[in-house]
Amino acid sequence: MKMEEKFEPKIVAFLCKWCSSAGSDLAGVSRLKYPPNVVPITVMCSGSVSPNYIFSAFKKGADGVLVSGCHPGDCHYMKGNYYARRRITLVKELLDFIGIEPQRFHMSWVSAAEGAKFTEIISDFVKELEPLGPQNKLRSNL
Amino acid sequence: MKKRIGYFICHCGINIAGTVDVKRVSEDLASYPGIIHSEDYVYMCSDPGQSRMIEAIKEKKLDKVVIACCSPTLHETTFRNAARTAGINSFQCEIANVREQCSWVHKDKVKATEKAIKISKSVIERARFNESLEPISIPVTRRALVIGGGISGIQSALDLANSGYEVVLVERSPSIGGHMIQLSETFPTLDCSQCIMTPKMVEVSKHPKIKLLTYSEVQDISGYVGNFKVKILKKPTFVDPDKCTLCDECTTVCPVAVPNEFDLGLTRRRAIYIPFPQAIPATYTLDINHCPGLVPIACGKCADVCEPKAIDYDMKPEILEEEVGSIIVSTGFDLYGKDEMAEYGYGTYEDVLDGLQFERLCSASGPTMGKILRPSDHKEPKEVVFIQCVGSRDPEQHCAYCSKICCMYTAKHAMLYKHHVHDGQAYVFYIDIRSGGKGYEEFVQRAVEEDGVVYLRGKVSKIFEENGKIRVWGVDTLSGKDIEIKADMVVLAMAIRPSKGADELAKKLKIAMDKDGFLSEAHPKLRPVESVTSGMFLAGAAQAPKDIPEAVAQASGAAVKAVNILSQEKLYHAPTVAAVNSTLCTGCGMCVDVCPYEAVSLAEGKANVNEVLCEGCGTCMATCLRAAASVKNVTPQQVHNMIIASLEG
Ligand SMILES: Cc1cc2nc3c(=O)[nH]c(=O)nc-3n(C[C@H](O)[C@H](O)[C@H](O)COP(=O)(O)OP(=O)(O)OC[C@H]3O[C@@H](n4cnc5c(N)ncnc54)[C@H](O)[C@@H]3O)c2cc1C
Ligand code: SF4
Ligand code: SF4
Ligand code: FES
Questions:
Q1: Which of B49, B146, B346, B601 could pair with B44 as two cysteines, CB 3.0-4.6 Å apart?
Q2: Domains of chain A, start order
Q3: B399 in the same domain as B480
Q4: Which of B619, B634, B640 should be substituted to probe chain A, the one whose Cβ sees the most A Cβ atoms within 10 Å?
């Protein structure tokens, strides 16, 4: 990395198919703009995101991880996001424990109608990650 | 087996190619492991675009393809169909979204191109381990269950039966008819409710395709769309309807008298009774809760006088098992009662009535033979106050919602009162008048203009009895004046509630309820008659307060939705469901607990997924600590590979 080059955080975003992925589609259809630092992985439901996915993303060099699902009460599968929410609290604590800044991990609720909210979340996340610099705690030597 | 993957990136005119260097992407991907063919094309979804893909699959013997294009919600089906045409399984085709999630949201071409490469590689990693799958087919039991025999249930049952399907109609009270059969005349046309309802009830009882189970309740439901198994409890009536000649001798000797539900306590009935003369089935019921006792027989007078020997004290409850493919829930509503509404003297003053009691007073076959008389002294009331929104639109203390039908039936009540008592005066306290509906606004205007009903905008603050009058204090918010009316009768338009026990039934059926306890539709706009549970539909006031025309329309809608299922020989279900690796599974049962569809069960110490119930949400997969549970084609292995590709690509 050259000195003058700006740090570009790498983000993996797990988006549930029914709300958040559809919301990110709407951001596209509305031609909203957000930083290209995020690679989306569409999953069926936020409830299917295992903590393992989050840790393996950090291990493989992610500087930030986002899990986004339907608003509480709106999960296509009724309760998936409630399970996700519970799990996420544990993940945050665990990250803290192993010395990763908890801000590197985000959970959000984005509905299919919230293209603008998705855009904002990504932009804010990138801004929040920039001062933290690269995540090296869990990154396995690549 | 070595994978032979084809990669195609679409320019989408300039929609993708304007921001993503598609040539570079295609060249980069050409050397990615497993890629045998990589190309870019101006419009992949066009016929020539699809043909290129089909040709490539055939010529290069590709076994998987990834198309980088617009969102999979748009063309996944298109490309999967094309893949099938080319001879590979449709689940071997995956879509990488490089338009909505990439080219349309970024400006920097270099960065957008890099991102498009990462997205593509990540989706290739998913495709690499995709299994070939075929839709799961489910047989269909081609008959339906309708729960609740009010106008909604009756309409659904008749529509289904007249479409040629067998229907089991379960009603928990001794007769079908619901609330509509209690009404006198109906807005906005003032037809006599019994005159339009009775023929439908008779049609139900005579229809060869309808099995009517009254005095019955659904006890248990298992199974899934197309294949429900239902246990129904048929309570004993102690009267054989085939022998009963409706002579009415039994009620003349029965010593018990209890409030009559049909007249909402305005009259009394015997322990053995017929709910109302036109009841269907036309027979008597012995109410075991009020009879002095059958074991041992404490009275026995009714059986003594019953000449055809229709009364059988040994009748036992029966459990019936029915198999159906689809279910319609039409359990209707109840009015707010005295437990919920202690204000306004309801339940304390005899001449403070609710709307249904007033319907009975207006009914030609009601307790007063259609004369409007005060319950306390049987005198004709000369001043009557009607109060709207009692318990409705009151989020602090009662129901936040509008009960929807009260504005209309109150106008009807005031009008009917004037038709009976020409020299009387009717007052209506209201918040606003909601009369959206065909002919509804005109109907309310008629009450004001032709029948001189006085509408007072405002809330009633106090009601109390004094010298045989009910004093009503309120404020007319339009004039700002305090108002006091010395009324002879007060009629409360009580809030509409879901019928008692609807919550328990919803739990048995596993259908959701909204915050007020009404049954939830699957989508408030586009799926208003479907419940969230596949194969179960909603009709009438069980879903939300509604009037008869709306209830009937929804009931017919629900019937058609049920026919959608019953008319199929087989149903097909997405095969991307969970599977459990039994070598890894320890039988901890965590997945059983979390599955929202109760699709997982333990058998011989191992988890087992019912593929028909499983919706593939993946909650079990994220919960299983042994990595034993996984959803086909989004397995943890696939997702791990996707993560690597997203970060390294
Ligand atoms: C005072 C008043 C006046 C009205 N006037 C008019 C009017 O003039 N015009 C108009 O269009 N509408 C009017 N309505 C509205 C009308 O009554 C309703 O639209 C209609 O009754 C709704 O029918 P339903 O079948 O959905 O519900 P219901 O009539 O409530 O029928 C539900 C049926 O399901 C049964 N049931 C409940 N739970 C179960 C269970 N768990 N298992 C088995 N069976 C069960 C009940 O016993 C009942 O028979 C009036 C309503 C009121 C309160
Ligand atoms: S959670 Fe995993 S180990 Fe436990 S029963 Fe389910 S599949 Fe088996
Ligand atoms: S994928 Fe979802 S629906 Fe299927 S078994 Fe697992 S938790 Fe249940
Ligand atoms: S489907 Fe979106 S969170 Fe469950």
A1: B49
A2: 11-132 (3.40.50)
A3: yes
A4: B619
* Residue bearing tokens 């149903």: B571
Question: B134, B222, B149, B157: which is closest to B535 by C-alpha?
Answer: B222
Q: What is the pLDDT of residues B73-113, one digit of tens each?
A: 999 999 999 999 999 999 999 999 999 999 999 999 999 99
Candidate from B104, B114, B647 with C-beta closest to A61:
B647
* Structural domain boundaries, residue B603: 577-631
Distances (CA, A) of B4 to B56, B65, B88, B127: 11, 9, 12, 11
pLDDT over 70 for what percent of chain B? 100
Residue to mutate among A8, A12, A44, A142, with most B CBs inside 10 A, is A44
- Look at residue B135 and tell me whether its pLDDT is greater than 50: yes
Instruction: State the SS3 of B18-78.
Output: CCCCHHHHHHHHHCCCCEEEEEEECCCCCHHHHHHHHHHHHHCCCCEEEEEECCHHHHHHH
ipTM: 0.96
Pairwise CB contact (< 8 Å): B622 & A48: yes
Q: What is the value of pTM for the model shown?
A: 0.79
**How many Cβ atoms are within 10 Å of A21's Cβ, its own excluded?**
29
Q: What is the 3-state secondary structure (H, E, C) of B72-96?
A: HHHHHHHHHHHHHHCCCCHHHEEEE
Looking at the domain assignment, is residue B311 inside a domain? no
Burial class (CB in 10 A: 0-12, 13-18, 19+), A74: middle
Average pLDDT of the segment spanning A85-100: 90
- pLDDT of the residue at B1: 59
DSSP state of A102: G
Give yes or no for a contact between B330 and B279, defined as CB atoms under 8 angstroms apart. Answer: no
Q: Tell me whether A92 touches chain B (CB under 8 Å).
A: no
> Does one domain contain both B481 and B359?
yes
Give the nearest ligand 3 atom to B594 CA: 7
Q: Which helix (H) or strand (E) holds B227?
A: strand B227-234
Whether residues B225 and B258 share a domain: the answer is: no
Q: What percent of chain A has pLDDT over 90?
A: 79
Residues B313-362 pLDDT 10s: 999 999 999 999 999 999 999 999 888 888 899 999 999 999 999 999 99
Q: Is the pLDDT of residue A3 over 60?
A: no
CA of B150 to the centre of ligand 1 (A): 6
The verdict on B538 and B603 lying in the same domain is no
pLDDT tens profile A56-87: 999 999 999 999 999 998 888 888 899 999 98
From B39, B53, B61, select the one nearest B82 (Cα to Cα). Answer: B53
Report the residue of chain A nearest B71, measured CA to CA: A25
Specify the pLDDT at position A142. 47
C-alpha torsion B398→B400→B404→B406, nearest 10: 30
Q: Does residue B571 lie in a domain region? A: no
Interchain CB contact of B598 with A (< 8 Å): no
Cα–Cα distance measured from residue B119 to residue A36, given in angstroms and rounded to the nearest whole number: 11
User: How many CB atoms lie under 10 A from the CB of residue B274?
Assistant: 23
Q: What percent of chain B has pLDDT over 90?
A: 93
Estimate the crossing angle of helix A51-59 against helix A80-97, to 10 degrees.
40
Looking at the structure, tell me whether residues B107 and B10 fall in a common domain.
Answer: yes
* Per-residue confidence (pLDDT) for residue A1, from 0 to 100: 47
